[in-house]
Design brief:
93 residues; alpha+beta; name from scop
Length: 93
């Protein structure tokens, strides 16, 4: 599952396999952010605006696991993505 979070002119993408901590899979500003958002929309991936979370996640390196301090905020975002898609995590099945 991939989840995208955006703010105007800034976007990040998270990848989550349901087993390990989510990782930062893309980040960018300006045109790159627009491209990330366009790809998310093209693939019907939920987008959520969370400016403060985007700012914190944008400081990470690509493919870096999110830090423990952001687990709750990112878990809420992943739960949002699952809810929008009408899915449940694999462990919940």
């Amino acid at each position: 599952m991939t989840d995208f979070i955006e703010t105007p002119n800034k976007a990040v993408a998270l990848s989550y396999d349901g087993v390990t901590a989510p990782v930062l899979s893309a980040k960018g500003m300006g045109e790159i952010a627009d491209e990330i958002i366009a790809i998310a929309k093209e693939h019907n991936i939920p987008i959520r605006e969370e400016p403060e979370l985007v700012d914190m996640l944008a400081k990470l390196k690509l493919d870096q696991e999110i830090p423990r301090e952001l687990y709750v905020a990112v878990a809420e975002t992943i739960a949002f993505a699952y809810m929008i898609k009408g899915k449940v995590p694999k462990q919940a099945n």
